[in-house]
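Worked example 4.2. Below are the chains of a multi-component assembly; read each line carefully before continuing.
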Amino acid sequence: MSGNTFGKIFKVTTFGESHGASLGGVIDGLPAGLDIDIEKIQKDLDRRKPSQKSPDGSVNKSVTQRNESDTIQILSGIFEGKSTGCPIGFVIPNSDAHSSDYSDIAEKFRPGHADYTFYEKYGIRDYRGGGRSSGRETACRVAGGAFAKILLEKLFPQFEITASTTEAAGIKAETFDKDEIEKNSLRCADKNAAKKMEERIEEIRSKGDSCGAIVECRIKGIKAGLGEPVFDKLDALLAQAMLSIGAIKGIEFGSGFESAGMLGSEWNDQMKKADSNGQVFKTNHAGGILGGMSNGNEIVFRVAIKPVPSISCEQNTIDKTGNECTMQIKGRHDICLAPRIIPVIEAMASIVLADLALQNLTSKIN
Amino acid sequence: MSGNTFGKIFKVTTFGESHGASLGGVIDGLPAGLDIDIEKIQKDLDRRKPSQKSPDGSVNKSVTQRNESDTIQILSGIFEGKSTGCPIGFVIPNSDAHSSDYSDIAEKFRPGHADYTFYEKYGIRDYRGGGRSSGRETACRVAGGAFAKILLEKLFPQFEITASTTEAAGIKAETFDKDEIEKNSLRCADKNAAKKMEERIEEIRSKGDSCGAIVECRIKGIKAGLGEPVFDKLDALLAQAMLSIGAIKGIEFGSGFESAGMLGSEWNDQMKKADSNGQVFKTNHAGGILGGMSNGNEIVFRVAIKPVPSISCEQNTIDKTGNECTMQIKGRHDICLAPRIIPVIEAMASIVLADLALQNLTSKIN
Amino acid sequence: MSGNTFGKIFKVTTFGESHGASLGGVIDGLPAGLDIDIEKIQKDLDRRKPSQKSPDGSVNKSVTQRNESDTIQILSGIFEGKSTGCPIGFVIPNSDAHSSDYSDIAEKFRPGHADYTFYEKYGIRDYRGGGRSSGRETACRVAGGAFAKILLEKLFPQFEITASTTEAAGIKAETFDKDEIEKNSLRCADKNAAKKMEERIEEIRSKGDSCGAIVECRIKGIKAGLGEPVFDKLDALLAQAMLSIGAIKGIEFGSGFESAGMLGSEWNDQMKKADSNGQVFKTNHAGGILGGMSNGNEIVFRVAIKPVPSISCEQNTIDKTGNECTMQIKGRHDICLAPRIIPVIEAMASIVLADLALQNLTSKIN
Amino acid sequence: MSGNTFGKIFKVTTFGESHGASLGGVIDGLPAGLDIDIEKIQKDLDRRKPSQKSPDGSVNKSVTQRNESDTIQILSGIFEGKSTGCPIGFVIPNSDAHSSDYSDIAEKFRPGHADYTFYEKYGIRDYRGGGRSSGRETACRVAGGAFAKILLEKLFPQFEITASTTEAAGIKAETFDKDEIEKNSLRCADKNAAKKMEERIEEIRSKGDSCGAIVECRIKGIKAGLGEPVFDKLDALLAQAMLSIGAIKGIEFGSGFESAGMLGSEWNDQMKKADSNGQVFKTNHAGGILGGMSNGNEIVFRVAIKPVPSISCEQNTIDKTGNECTMQIKGRHDICLAPRIIPVIEAMASIVLADLALQNLTSKIN
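Applying the procedure described above to all four chains together yields the following structure tokens:
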């Protein structure tokens, strides 16, 4: 495995397993001179951490009750409150790791999990809590993304990134009120839909099952020209970034899969004189990306999230020797990943943009 | 722009513009000792080349009538019919470049094209035929993919990759007969649907319009374990590879966006004793990928293709000075990209797999 | 700064400053299934750590008396004593950082140090103990090298790497007795020369001065063929690796700079039937590398080490505003880097070889 | 072999064998908007090409008489005389390839050449003229370097790079007159020494032998701060770049190997108020590099060049089956590489600097 680094100039490297001593990573390539507010970084981690409460203070029933503070310790690269240009090492210690919950899975492969593929690839696996393939790994991505956002906010004062749940447990959001997102346990921008999603998820939870979701991400304030054709296009790297998140099974930009049924005369975003924000497109079927580069419009993409694979119903599987058996997964698990994956999506998208923004500084010489 | 190389060990670098002297590239990292059949490579290029006939010998009306032989000249890396381990340089000369067709677009940005973003990023653009952002660039990807396939066929004797059009111009394929694919102008595995697509596309063409499509790709014979968590996962790199192709606006694996509405108990592919092909999954909602690694099952993904942006209707746009204007695009263009993008999809997927197959040789030491 | 990762498949990423909370890093790409003996890794670190005693138990006067245990804490990637294929995160906490010693250098640039260049590049620098440019950073390289050696010992049972001081303070070693190396404070293979070096260094130390050295590294047991032409040749990457170590100002392979005065008929290593070790060369002017690849012979290179720049004599310099001033450097410093740089040289060479050994697994398909 | 790309942002990829159809490569990451003078690029290639005349018009007896025009054909990336930001593909066709000269070496390994290592690594080799390991490969480096220099001249108006022969055939240059360099066949800055070198080389040539050399490279006008600690330091990458050139066996910066015998009080370059060129160092033992970054002083390094391995005396070797035999190398060969390797050294150094200059644009945010 040598795929634990993302980025070319702004680079995030991560390590750590669900039940190891600590998660952590290294952020390299952050320019010097940026003001670093560690509390703000911690806040990003808090949005992702397990066992978070619902905005109304009640237990959030869609997320795991594992109790981790996910406190980041920054070990280098910051001096007197500023980035120095040197690599930022950090750790996020594990504290509430109940290894005993996982003894059964040492011998059997959990359906829908990476157990089988890890074993096939490496011949060995840290089975405790999913080891490296656990969603806990994404805490480090959120840390990396927090630094990326500091850079993006400096480079693009209008920068704003907002992901929200547009579908969960089969229920679709129908309105978009940004202010609602952090007010419900699903991070859904439609208050009424959120309520229905919560009810449906509680029902699913009570049956020991889980469900999928769709999350939409919108990014404002990025100037035109980010993305490096022909292989490191903005959409290409966003797609890599998103599909590298465990539960994500698809991504679409702008009109996405609907484009298949459209005519060119419908799809092409007609252009107009720049408005006060420098915006030159009348519509946004392109999702803010043309030719693999940001076009100055809002960047819009949606990702498909599969149901949490850890469910408590009995499942058919095989053990390490290849024999068929059944298993029931215990432990504390999420029911729907949408609310906790949203900060991860925002983080990975920010990492992509930060890296491409730095690369873009070299695109022309005036 | 420093994004013209794809891969870490098996690396494909490409260059070339639509109306420049030549396209070309370098394939580095192909292991030594492989038998290289140049005719077979040329055949792959022929499947993508413009102005190809329909299988029945008639003019294929969904594709551009630009006349290019797309003949590959291999300049290095092959000796006495075998790969030597040295980089393979190749060129694909341009011959039928009508620069005169493109004079109007020097000053105006074509809606739906990369004209505006290239200009914003670089301050200069080779506007002839779209320059670097032309679909012609993908000829080099097909060349790279042809070498990747030679490697994959050696490593995985059961390897087979097949992409086909499952939707075009709003018409969906309903059956899958692999033998039909190369028998119709859409590369659709459903004979009847193909006929309807052709009719509908002819209608669209006659109005100067264009249409989108969906292509599905299925890959057999890949053993479990390819993919490098956590960022260079198989699905992550396939997503990067696909979204790096100009017209593709979305990708989904296995159950993809449908996963959002499924329960964990439906989605999780239950496991069983290995069958004669080593297959251990009862279903394939995962699309052959778990934890970012191939799981031995068929790898299945679908991509959304936007309508060809070059249409002959009048469009609203702006010129280089930012003033509003209208334009009509002339020249010879595709109506629906599906048939010609299929070899590109197969090529890029093969490049990803070849690179990950080589990386996988280092995953464990016995 | 985005240069804190070394390697393509076996990758070592490091972070940390002299007086920060902790040094650390990530080792990615180590194959799964290797037995990891953490005590052995710690022993490598002990060979580099400051304030180490002379082999006879006396104070080693050529090295700094800063008191650091350099204890490595491994945070991930090892399970039940074996590598899992997942990234290995580690930290080496700083404990004895006397920041007060360094207050003067906040405003002035120390001659021979990286103070000026860091300030010019980043506009900010962590001046405490040299920050990122401190030799302490190399502790992480030694950790990385320890893992590389585990891999190399598995792949090449005859693998053996030995660096020793061949010149220090102007005194040259004249004999080579490998068993002597760890018996004297200079890690010199010539007992008598070592004694003279020690005396001369004590003299230099008493005057507040420092001195340079030459270290030779010999590597046995590597099979022919490691190295990736034309840019990632074995000697090219060893040169990068060595020159990336702070104090090293030159490298030569085999006959090195003497080659300039030789004839082709003298230089060319004549070949012979393979001996029992598979050795086919009669001489070794090439230093074990031909065409950028190991040739099966002993790999031999020498590096030039500049005098430690921290000296207590008064020096002429400038301050941050550009005004001339003088300064005297206080604190605890090495006099001659040779003994402590030797484990770093062995580590970096091992990292290069481990990476190329893994890459070489993909060079041909049989 | 996947090592045919150099650089991270400004990237040069090369391909081609001595007796294949063509050499060539791709230059990626050159910023858009630079004026490209192709004649100037060709002139750089002419300085390296075989069979060049002595400056006085006579046959240059130190170089091979193979007759190649080394004409570069640029295939992409330039539009209306300017770089577009798109990759620059180029070819340099082979024309005077006498394959018949090399039939003997198909079965035997030439001492001092890469024949044996290529065969061991790949199990196959293009033996004609050394195949990929031929010095002809460096023509592409010179092409890449020519583009790098265009960028450097734009970024650093005072930029100047000059390599010259300081020792050849055992004779050392004692004076440095830059204007002499292009006036003698050795590219030596000492007129008298050059004459003696020429005589000595003619003597060596007449005996069918060859000789080594030392070349010094001086680079002016680079501002402080180029280089990416801790692994991609300026000296580290220059060392990689130089040692990746076939015949180079060592490199030293500034005082280099002499540093070993110096005291810190002698070595440390004392600092002073900036002069009119911004120069702040009184001496230059560091060779213009501190902490792995340019310090604004002249960058100075020397490389050791081994004797040309192709000599016509009878040599002892083995054949592919491992049996001992003798061989005599025929064909047209250089006697001393110094004059032709000088443009390659300048090119590779320029590539390193161009890449680091672009990376440096991201080092701080003001």
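Take a moment to check your reading of the output against the notes. Chain A is about 25% helix and 20% strand. The interface with chain D takes residues 8-9, 29, 31-34, 85-86, 151, 154-155, 229, 358-359, 361-366 of chain A (CB under 8 Å).
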